[in-house]
C-alpha cells in the first residue's frame, strides 16, 4: 500500500496558542568570547568535562563547523527543506543524558551562546535550529533523550522530549492492551519536546483537551543549568511551558503526562466533495454544507471530531476544489451514523462510509494510512518525508462567511496545491479559557516513583 503522508503546504488551523518565541534567557547579545571555532570548541569541551564529570568523552556531544559529524547531525531533523542550508550554529550539542543537557546549557551561558532547543525539528520556521537575531547560538539537540516509560495502572507516562508522538502512542497502547492513548497531533514523527511546549492539538482534543492540558509534571533545565521539576519551578513557569511556545522558558528534559482511556473500537470516515463547476447549484450546496458544518462542528458531542480540509484534485488536467471531511468518533460505526444523522445530516454519512478500528490504527488513518498498516510504522522516526513548505496558523472565532469560503476555494486552486485545514475545537478546548484565562490544568499529580514506570521503548 502506498502511504499518503501528511503534506503540509498552506494551512489554516483553528489554533493560536501563545505565540511567544524567544531565546533561552542567556546573555545572548554578547559576542562570543573566542575568536575561532576551534578555540570555542576546546573551551566548551573543558566546560562540559568540568560540569558533567560522568561524561567520559565530551567530544561525543560537542560538534563545531568543520567537524565531520556536524553536517549530518545538523541536517538529521531539519524537516523543512526551505531551511536546509540556513542554519549555522556555532556549536551543535547532542547530549545523551539529562545531566549532559544541563551541563550544555550551563556551558552555553558560560560562553555567551544563546540556545536553540531542538527535539524533532518540525518547527514550521526552523526556529529550533536557526537564528536570525544572533549568530552566536548553539543548537541543543535533545533527540537522544527519547525514553517513554508507561505506568498503565496509574495511567501516566514519563516521556523525554526526543520521543516522537508515534513512539508515545505505540507505548501507551502496548503497555495497556490498547486501553490507553494520548490526545495529541496526527504526525507520528513530531516530537513531544516541541509539541507539548506549543499546545498540541489532534482528533481527541474535543474529548480530552490539548496535549499540554494532560501534562502533570515536567523537568526543565533553566538558563543557569538547573533541573527544575514542577514543585521547584512553581506554578507560573509550569503553566507557561505548556503552550507558551517551545524554547521560550527553558529546555524541557521530560514530561509526565496523563494517558487517557480509549475504547476498544473507534470509528472513522473520510468523505470528499469535489466541485466540478463554479458558480452553480453544486457550489451553493457545498457552501451550505460548509456553513452548516461550521455551525455544529465545535458543538458536537465531545467524542466526535469532524474536520474539514480544502484541497485540489486534477480532473482532466484541470485543478478543481475538493473539500475533505474527516472524522473520528470514540465509539462504533452504528453510533457514528446515528450522531452524524442527528447533527449533520447534510453530509449524508452512511454505514458504508464508516470504518471501525482500534485507536492506534485511527492515528495512522488520520496521518494518511487509510488502508491499514502495521502499528510498528509509528516507530519509524523518518516516516514523514522532508519537504519544502510554508504553514500559517490562524484562529477562527466566528464562521467564515460564504463569500470568504468562495474566495478560499478559488485561492486553493490558484495556489496549485496545498491545503487549508480547519480543525474544530469546543468540548474540552474552550476558547474562552484558551485566550482569556488559564487553560484548565489537571489536578496536581506528581509521581516521583519512576522506578515503577514500565520501560516500553
Ligand atoms: C508534518 C507536521 C505535522 C504536524 N502536525 C501537527 C498536529 O497534528 N497538531 C499540532 O498541534 N501540531 C502539529 N505540527 C506542529 C508541531 O507540533 C510543532 O511544530 C512542534 O513544535 C514540533 O515539535 P518538534 O520537537 O518536532 O520540533 P522542534 O523544531 O524541535 O521544536 C519546535 C519548537 O519547540 C522548541 N523545543 C524543542 N524541543 C524543546 C525542548 N526540549 N524544550 C523546550 N523547547 C523545545 C524549539 O526550540 C522550537 O521553538 C505539525 C508539524 C509538522 C511539520
Automatic annotation (TrEMBL):
Signal peptide range: 1-30
FAD-binding PCMH-type domain residues: 85-262
The keyword Repeat is assigned to this record: no
Keywords annotated in UniProt:
Signal
Top-level division of the source organism's lineage: Eukaryota
Natural source organism: Leersia perrieri
One GO MF term, please? Answer: FAD binding
- Mind telling me which Pfam families this protein's record contains? FAD_binding_4
What is this protein identified as? FAD-binding PCMH-type domain-containing protein
- InterPro entries, per the entry: FAD-bd_PCMH (IPR016166), FAD-bd_PCMH-like_sf (IPR036318), FAD-bd_PCMH_sub1 (IPR016167), FAD-bd_PCMH_sub2 (IPR016169), Oxid_FAD_bind_N (IPR006094)
Which cofactor is essential here? FAD
Amino acid at each position: 500500500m502506498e502511504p499518503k503522508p501528511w503534506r503540509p503546504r498552506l494551512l489554516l488551523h483553528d489554533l493560536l496558542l501563545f505565540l511567544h518565541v524567544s531565546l533561552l534567557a542567556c546573555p545572548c547579545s554578547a559576542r562570543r568570547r573566542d575568536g575561532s571555532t576551534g578555540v570555542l570548541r576546546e573551551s566548551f569541551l573543558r566546560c562540559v568535562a568540568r560540569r558533567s564529570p560522568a561524561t567520559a568523552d565530551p567530544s561525543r556531544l560537542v560538534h563545531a563547523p568543520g567537524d565531520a559529524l556536524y553536517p549530518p547531525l545538523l541536517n538529521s531533523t531539519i524537516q523543512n527543506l526551505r531551511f536546509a542550508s540556513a542554519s549555522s550554529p556555532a556549536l551543535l550539542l547532542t547530549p545523551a543524558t539529562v545531566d549532559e543537557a544541563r551541563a550544555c546549557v550551563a556551558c552555553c551561558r558560560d560562553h555567551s551562546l544563546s540556545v536553540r532547543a531542538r527535539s524533532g525539528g518540525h518547527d514550521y520556521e526552523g526556529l529550533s535550529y536557526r537564528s536570525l537575531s544572533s549568530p552566536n547560538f548553539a543548537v541543543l539537540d535533545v533527540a537522544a533523550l527519547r525514553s517513554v516509560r508507561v505506568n498503565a495502572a496509574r495511567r501516566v507516562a514519563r516521556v523525554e522530549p526526543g520521543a516522537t508522538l508515534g513512539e508515545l502512542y505505540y507505548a501507551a497502547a502496548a503497555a495497556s492492551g490498547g486501553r490507553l492513548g494520548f490526545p495529541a497531533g496526527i504526525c507520528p514523527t513530531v516530537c513531544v519536546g516541541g509539541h507539548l511546549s506549543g499546545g498540541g492539538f489532534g482528533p481527541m482534543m474535543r474529548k480530552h483537551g490539548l496535549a499540554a492540558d494532560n501534562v502533570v509534571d515536567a523537568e526543565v533545565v533553566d538558563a543557569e543549568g538547573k533541573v527544575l521539576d514542577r514543585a521547584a519551578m512553581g506554578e507560573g513557569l509550569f503553566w507557561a511551558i505548556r503552550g507558551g511556545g517551545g524554547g521560550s522558558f527553558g529546555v524541557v528534559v521530560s514530561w509526565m503526562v496523563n494517558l487517557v482511556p480509549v475504547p476498544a473500537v473507534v470509528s472513522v470516515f473520510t468523505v470528499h466533495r469535489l466541485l466540478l463547476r463554479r458558480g452553480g447549484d453544486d457550489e451553493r450546496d457545498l457552501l451550505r454544507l460548509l456553513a452548516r458544518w461550521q455551525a455544529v462542528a465545535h458543538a458536537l458531542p465531545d467524542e466526535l471530531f469532524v474536520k474539514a480540509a480544502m484541497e485540489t484534485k486534477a480532473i482532466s488536467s484541470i485543478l478543481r476544489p475538493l473539500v475533505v471531511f474527516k472524522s473520528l468518533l470514540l465509539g462504533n460505526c452504528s453510533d457514528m451514523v446515528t450522531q452524524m444523522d442527528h447533527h449533520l445530516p447534510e453530509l449524508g454519512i452512511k454505514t458504508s462510509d464508516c470504518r471501525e478500528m482500534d485507536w492506534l490504527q485511527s492515528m495512522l488513518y488520520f496521518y494518511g494510512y487509510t488502508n491499514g498498516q502495521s502499528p510498528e510504522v509509528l516507530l519509524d522516526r523518518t516516516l514523514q518525508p522532508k519537504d519544502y513548505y510554508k504553514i500559517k496558523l490562524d484562529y477562527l472565532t466566528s464562521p467564515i462567511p460564504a463569500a470568504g469560503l468562495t474566495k478560499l476555494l478559488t485561492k486553493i486552486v490558484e495556489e496549485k496545491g496545498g491545503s487549508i485545514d480547519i480543525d474544530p475545537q469546543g468540548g474540552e478546548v474552550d476558547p474562552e479559557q484558551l485566550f482569556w484565562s488559564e487553560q484548565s490544568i489537571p489536578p496536581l499529580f506528581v509521581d516521583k516513583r519512576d522506578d515503577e514506570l514500565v520501560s516500553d521503548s
